[in-house]
Design a protein that fits this description.
The complex is a heterotrimer.
Chain A: E1 3-5, E2 8-9, E3 15-16, E4 29-32, H1 33-38, H2 40-44, E5 50-54, E6 72-77, H3 84-94, E7 101-106, H4 113-118, E8 123-125, H5 131-140, H6 156-166
Parallel strand pairs in A: 3-4, 4-5, 5-6, 6-7, 7-8
Antiparallel strand pairs in A: 1-2, 1-8
Chain B: H1 6-27, H2 33-41, E1 45-47, E2 52-56, E3 62-64, H3 65-78, E4 82-85, E5 91-93, H4 101-110, E6 127-128, H5 142-153, E7 168-171, E8 185-191, E9 197-203, E10 215-222, H6 226-240, H7 251-258, H8 260-274, H9 283-292, H10 306-314, H11 316-325, E11 326-328, E12 334-339, E13 350-352, H12 353-366, E14 370-373, E15 379-385, H13 389-398, E16 413-414, H14 429-438, H15 442-448, E17 453-456, E18 470-477, E19 480-487, E20 499-500, E21 505-506, H16 510-524, H17 531-538, H18 540-548
Parallel strand pairs in B: 6-7, 7-8, 16-17, 17-18
Antiparallel strand pairs in B: 1-2, 2-5, 3-14, 4-5, 4-13, 8-9, 9-10, 11-12, 12-15, 14-15, 18-19, 19-20, 19-21
Chain C: H1 2-17, H2 19-23, E1 32-39, E2 45-49, E3 52-54, H3 66-81, E4 85-95, E5 101-103, H4 106-113, H5 123-126
Antiparallel strand pairs in C: 1-2, 1-4, 2-3, 4-5
The chains are: A alpha/beta, B alpha+beta, C alpha+beta.
Amino acid sequence: MPLIRNGRLADDPWTALADDAELPPTGAVIVSLARFRTEREVLFNRGAPLGIRLKSSELASEIGADAPRLDLIAIDFPVFRDGRGYSTARLLRERWGFAGELRAVGNVLRDQLLFMDRCGFDAFEVESPDAVAAWEKALAEFSVFYQPATDARVPARLQRLQRRAAS
Amino acid sequence: MYRYDEFDQTFVAQRVAQFRDQVARRLVGELTEDEFRPLRLMNGLYLQLHAYMLRVAVPYGTLSSRQMRKLAHIARRYDKGYGHFTTRQNIQYNWPALKDVPDILMELAEVEMHALQTSGNCIRNVTADQYSGAAADEIEDPRICAEVIRQWSSLHPEFSFLPRKFKVAVTGAPHDRAAVAVHDIGIRIVRGDDGEVGYAVLAGGGQGRTPMIGKTVRAFLPKPYLLSYLEAILRVYNEFGRRDNMFKARIKILVHEVGIDEFRRRVEEEWEHIRGTAVEVPEEEVRRIASYFAPPTFARLPAVSEGFERQQRTDAQFALWARASLHPHKQPGYAIVNISLKPIGGVPGDATAEQMDIIADLAERYAFDEVRVTHEQNLTLPHVRQDDLYALWQELDAAGLATANINTVTDIIACPGLDYCNLANARAIPIAQKISERFGDIEQAHDIGELKIKISGCINACGHHHVGHIGILGVDKKGVEFYQLTLGGDATETAALGELVGPAFGYDDVVDAVEKLVRIYLGLRQENERFLDTYRRVGLQPFKEKLYAAH
Amino acid sequence: MMSKTESKSSKRASEEGVLAISTARGARGEALKAVTANRLVDGLVVYLGGDGWVEALAAARSVSGKEAAAALLAEAEPDVAACRVVGPYVIDVVPDEAGTLQATSERERIRALGPTMRPDLGKQAEA
């Protein structure tokens, strides 16, 4: 499935590791939260990039203070209607200091990309063959935003204040 | 009222362009119906029994004449010449074609309107007291708070895929005309012990199949923290609200299941993290918004208009209308005027394009250019000089808009029911019409006094039957329409849910049953008691016994 | 105009009285199946007729038995993919004395005709 990272089609060097699969000696792996909990020390001390894949029911606080030590967190959207991942993403970024790759996986549709981008996702697994064009279009649909989120976009209310201060 | 600046205008224009693109993708098959449905719902577009239905947002129920004229134009040009005002202060069109909807939205954008978030599992259009800025008992105009929330919730990136829909209502007066206790979040503007104005925040109210009265999460929230507190509630709901069962996904179930104390603990814990951060709306922005809701330039007038007093004495019809339709205004010499959209035997909440145009014209000439939509499916002219009431009444009467039945037995709320709605089990509108005709004598209706009948055609309770003094719920029994009656519901600051009286009545019997309930009340009532007062004094039993007693 | 409306309205009222009877399967004739949907472009109610989709229930094709109904529904599926209609499904219909198809459920009767209190709207207004 195509992967968009920072707005470009990207290779995916990560191996998604099943819970019963043997841990490879090298290479970047993504494990479940359950596996992370049981093999936490081994995984951290492996000397290779570590990622966790969260189910939609697994909330940001379950990673908590470990977030800054991770290189990737993938958040699953089992159906697009399940919006827990938006809160999870924001909290990982804004509260728990996660700075690595935040990847949206599962039922990721083009009409959600802007919301996801605003909540701190920077990588998306999307089905669309023209994924990058769709991504660019989705992000360009709006230039006005009414609330602050994880992204750097300036909300309308601050733009108003800035404009008034300048005039 | 609020006016768009270029940011607001750009935003709605971009939203229209986005939806135009989505419709185009749907029509050529790039989007399946399953993919398109949530997108159209986020723009208020349903597919109902006969056709599409477009629900246009009327934020906190406030309209200008120009906007009302646009609504009339849309009814004429794209629909069948009428619109239906709803219990969420919105307007619905029942017959638009999908291909026309982008054009309709573009026309709405021209008058600073939209259909954003009138459906879908997001924060819905915020409602407020229809007497905002006019009521004598008001602490503060709730539309300032509602507009702040409207902007903050517009395409909120975190809260657009909630477990279920999310409704917020605000009242600025102690007398609750916005039914805040039956909303996911209800906000009451209150004065603290030291005189400071702030918010009492309720959560977990709602109707539907599991009706609940909202519980107080915070008795006093200082005004600067409005948005962080709402964001905390929404985040707790988004994370912990049930997603395994659609019927248990509303916030009321979460509040009920974890208990209000635990719910409050989670909200306050979340709030501690975010209070005072960038989410709060800057004071200057609040002042900017508030300036749009500054009172109009009222004339200095005596508290009582002599002409108005005299006209009531000399014209009994006018006096009857005045008694039913007027509400005290905070400004001496002015009145709040309610326009009944419940003509005897009519469809509750429907207005023709011609009526909309007439009301727009009257608002322009008599009411500082403002119209309000009430959650009881009527319209309000908030600021009218008492000296003008007689002339206004004559013009309303000529347009069939002067039925003197506000707050009486024929001022009925009814959802569209099986005549329009895909979800309905039974018809609601024809029941309202038959009750209205049964009690068509206006003098008699005044003698019965305040009586709120509310009818829903299915358990989703869009007709607010749970909070009707008499509630009527349509159910389907093996393909035949039946109606359950509840008594004692109340949507105000003394909110209560109605109690089921007993076995349901058939389509042809329910009006007789309602009449019987009214007669039972008339037999039981003591001086000056409303139906609800009598019910609260005597309880369900006397009504039940007499209703089901053999003839 | 007014008298036309009134006569339709009273016809409607008299039909309500026999609703319970007509709901019972086969009371007036053999229980049959038809396929209905909403047209994508304008949302209007349509039925699968002899040659594509038709707006009047009277012109719908009716079949007898579960298998024939499933086959009829299968015929509708390509038009979902082709963006002509949305959400096709099978409904029960019975011919009346004149042999004209009528829906048996109240919901489908309302879809076939229009809002019961507005005889000037919907398909009943065009008849």
